[in-house]
Amino acid sequence: MSLSGISEYQPKDYKSDLKPIWCPGCGDYSVVQGIYRALAAIGRPPHEIAFISGIGCSSRIPGYTTAYGFNTVHGRALPIAQGIKLANPDLLVLAAGGDGDGFSIGGGHIAHLIRRNMDITYIVMDNQIYGLTKGQLSPTSPKGRNTCTSRLGSLEEPVNPLLYVLAYGAGFVAQAAPTDLAGMAAVIEEAIRYPGFAFVNIQSPCVTYGEEAQQVKHLKTIAESLESIGHNPADRLAAMDLAQDYGNKLHLGVFYRNPEPPPTYGDLVKERQILMAKDAVPRERILDLFIKH
Amino acid sequence: MNDFGPAGKERDAGLGLGVPTCRDLVFGMAGSGGDGIVSAGDSLLQAAAAEGYHGVMTKSFGSQIRGGESSCRVRISTEPILNPGGNLDVAVALNWEDFLKFGAELPVSGTTVVIYEAATNIPVDQIPLVGVTPRQVIAVPIAGIAKATAGTERAKNTVVLGLIAGWFGIGAVAVMKGIRKKLAKKGEELVEANQRAFDAGRAFALENPLKVCMNIVPSEAKGQLKLISDGNEMCAAAAIFAGCTFFGGYPITPSTEIMQFFTDRVWGYGGAVLQAEDEIAGIGAALGASFAGKKAMTATSGPGLSLKTEMMGLASIAELPLVIVDVQRGGPSTGLPTKSEQSDLFAAVFSAHGDVVRPVLAPTSVADTFRTTVEAFNIAEYYQTPVIILSDQEIAQRKETLDPIDTSQFTILERLHPSGTELQNYDRFKQTGNHISPISHPGMPGGTYLASGIEHTENGAPTNSGTVHARMNDKRIMKLDPLKDRKDLFEVTGNADAPLALVAWGSVAGVCREALAMAHAEGLNVKLLVPYLIYPVAEATYRGFFASVQKGVIIEQSHLAQFHKLLRMHIDLPKGVRSLARSGANPFLPGEIVAALHRLVSELQRSHEGKLQPQE
């Protein structure tokens, strides 16, 4: 960022030459646009950004940016992202993936990044379907949903990603949709600026396997900005109350922003590094520690 | 008694009371969890180090976390020790129930001196050891002495140390110095109480001399500096020495001490350690740190290695340096968590989908764990590959006295960074003469690229082209070929043209080194090959070694003889080379290996396949 506070970067500076392979009309096109805009507003040079994903249609996203990208294995974007952040806390670390990647195969990791307050922004492109494997039931698919692996209708309740992360104590929780690109870019920017673990759930319709009710046309009819209904994002219980509408209403904007962010894991690591550096024996003399007599 | 000490024993030479005659003593002690038996072993080992002896200590516990039985073995010698030894020279039983639970781990023979707690009320001629008449059996009121001198039975272990100092000539000052150091923080009163307990134990020993003196010969190395470490701590220290600043892992026996060492130390070097939410996240975080440009490590044991497999494949295709330690224990599944086995070899070498070569290195002792770990980082960083260090519980958790290691002898390699010119049009996976491409990392201007588990072109773009895939497989596999020419990752001992051969890796190599010395002493012309590089298999090195061999044994702690099978996949072994393999937790003894060699010699003589020339 320049000293004047005005970014030297344009959204196009974060767009790579790689052409997305998403289906025409896929919600993820808007998400990557939202990310370009948010990054431009923040103004960190691309080489200071690490963008990590798992596997799935949406996990292709790091390759479409000019940041350092790492398209890893299914469900493991977050563990790898936290290693990157700890190794170099000065990096801007983004993680992204789909609902299956984040809440099914990788569902065990989110809680732990939250309780560590890792300063990482995690964007889930939630389309309620496994798109890359051609239309199977996902952890956020509504109950009763007919897919190629649930032809008679699914028998299970969906995960509520918003309630999930709020319950674990995430410091920043927001939702966005392609119905409002400017709003999406704004919450992504705010998520990145939040000092700690930030979660953005993006309703990103699958145009190939999604149902009518998940397409942008329908989303527009149910979208409602949290700001417009007077929600106070410092009120965690109110946020949890609103999060219960997941699957029925589409609340957009910031559900919760911790007004007093606790120190991040990275902050605590730095403190400990400074504390311990004083007594560290030089590397080449580390074996002195084994003189026991 | 251990019959195969490297220096031989002269204790029955009838030199009379008080004259030191032993060069090598194996102590085995057992008691209940709270008896402090392992703590006594620690003190004994430290005293031995202070007196200039070589020492090895192993511990063994019941499966209970508190209470239950615990034991330790301490071997002390004037000569370098290559394994923890066989039969005990000295057995200490604080109670028989606990002692007997350790069975073959504390083997008593006809040359063992047995010391036990008199309060057990078992007469010396009725101790519950079946089928063996020890050299001497002594009942000592250990608890009574502790109570009378220190006011508490908790000083029993100190009394035992006093007895040992008195009967076996281990320096009393050195032992007490160690105890003082250990108890210093707990106050002078406790130190004094322990001093009284120690003195009383020693006095008891001096008043009741052994039938045959077993005092250990003073070490000529007294006063020389010795280190004490186990393999796990040595591994972690070597990693920090090699520049590792990130450790991600998950607690698992018997590797956890590696993470503990990092937790205590790595911050001071600007590093971090993450006790992750699971094994996958542990290796994931380490891989992330490596992507971010740092030297990184994870450590685990069998079950964790299974879980980390997918991430290791990612490291291979993304060409990211990473060191993975697998401290082997008995498997499959939970198996024998506290016992050593060499049965993860296939998992280390082969567990991956797709065509992958992943270097596997194995240390053979606590001391060479340092060198092996530094080497693992060098290979990982230089070749941009995951490297597995295949340690085992035996090496990882036994404590050894070590001669100081000159760290200035090691070269530390760093990954190849792109030059300014290369960054102008940077191709992360560029084909080069040696298949190694300069690697950037987040934070480096001009170096941005997409790392991925999906197949990619030279500039990192995802592809599903079969042609590119074949070319990239070539690159990733061929870049490791030079490792096979690394003669320094193999150790050959004995005559180069010997017709008899032993091959062993990991902790079993230590037993074989001792067996080799015995076989040489018996005039057998035998040589030993110890590989530190397990994979890729250096075919030429093995072919060269086996060229002169008519008969041989490949020795390993694996029911399936995994190492023997791995070699047979790659080379044709001479017809007379066979496998001596068995499940873990049952250590090999040098004597049985020498016996196997003798059988091979008889076979050779019978079949007239060749003439054996005694060595020299």
Protein described:
The complex is a heterodimer of chains A (293) and B (616). Chain A has 293 residues and is α/β, with parallel strands linked by helices. Chain A is built from 9 helices and 8 strands. Chain A has an 8-stranded mixed beta sheet with strand order 2-1-3-4-6-5-8-7, with helices on both faces. In chain A, helix 1 packs across helix 6 (181-193). Chain B folds into 3 domains: 24-207, Pyruvate-ferredoxin oxidoreductase, PFOR, domain III (Pyruvate-ferredoxin Oxidoreductase, domain 3), CATH 3.40.920.10; 230-409, Thiamin diphosphate (ThDP)-binding fold, Pyr/PP domains (Rossmann fold, 3-Layer(aba) Sandwich), CATH 3.40.50; 489-607, Rossmann fold (3-Layer(aba) Sandwich). Chain B has helices spanning 37-50, 96-101, 142-150, 156-168, 172-183, 188-207, 231-241, 256-265, 279-291, 302-317, 345-350, 366-383, 393-397, 420-424, 466-478, 507-521, 539-546, 562-570, 590-607, and strands spanning 24-32, 54-61, 69-77, 90-93, 113-117, 136-140, 227-230, 244-249, 272-275, 295-300, 322-328, 360-361, 386-392, 399-402, 450-452, 490-493, 500-504, 526-531, 533-535, 551-556, 577-581. In chain B, helix 18 links the parallel strand 20 and strand 21 (577-581). The radius of gyration of chain B is 26 Å and the shape is globular. The chains are: A alpha/beta (293), B alpha/beta (616). Chains A and B meet through strand 1, strand 2, helix 2, helix 4 and helix 9 of A and helix 1, helix 5, strand 7, helix 7 and strand 8 of B. Strand 2 (68-71) of chain A pairs parallel with strand 15 (450-452) of chain B.
Summary?
Chain A has 293 residues and is α/β, with parallel strands linked by helices.
Widest beta sheet: strand line-up of chain A: 2-1-3-4-6-5-8-7
Tell me the CATH architecture of the largest domain in chain B: 3-Layer(aba) Sandwich
How far apart the termini of chain A lie comes to 56 Å
* Helix proportion range of chain A: 25-40%
* N to C succession of SSEs of chain A: HEEHEHHEHEHEHEHEH
What is the share of helical residues of chain B? 25-40%
